[in-house]
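Structure ticket #2291
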Amino acid sequence: MSQHASRRVGVLTAVALAIAAVAWLAAHPAKSSGHPGPHADARSSDERTHDPRRARAATRKFRDVNVARAAGYAATGGCVEDPKYGGMGIHYANPDLVADGELDVTKPEILVYQPAPGGKLRLGAIEYFQADADQDLATDPDRPYLFGMPFDGPMLGHESGMPIHYDLHVWLYRHNPAGRFAMWNPRVHCPGP
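Resolution: structure written out below.
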């Protein structure tokens, strides 16, 4: 795929994510009570939301990027790297899972692949995404939790039209010296131009 076509797919996917998030926000208006949202309790007694083995079992098939594509995941842009912290890789988002507004450890909204020798992609992490209900960076009563971990955020969207959101990276398929739930992996590097 040409660089221009790749950018176009990334922009279209970002627009689809933004539309899905706006639709979710319209269907789930922020509550004025100030009480935490349904995912905000890190101490949930539901073991299923704390077991990474369930996430690994459900996503193992996505080590093959073609299986991920067939399941509705699409690349949102190029390889993401930060010179100070390391990299993430190439994000593949599933717009339907982003739009449903539900968090399920067996259905991550995003899969993160790292470029491997020979042009192959290697699944390194899964990522969960939740739009911020009130779209206010200064508040977080709806901060979601999975695996007993709070999501990062709220943060600005990374692409034009992407809403303020929370996300949680889980490095299930590649060791991350910064930690299993760290955003950046110092061992991930994107190929040069």
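Closing remark: Strands lie at 74-75, 80-82, 86-93, 110-115, 121-131, 145-146, 149-150, 152-155, 165-170.
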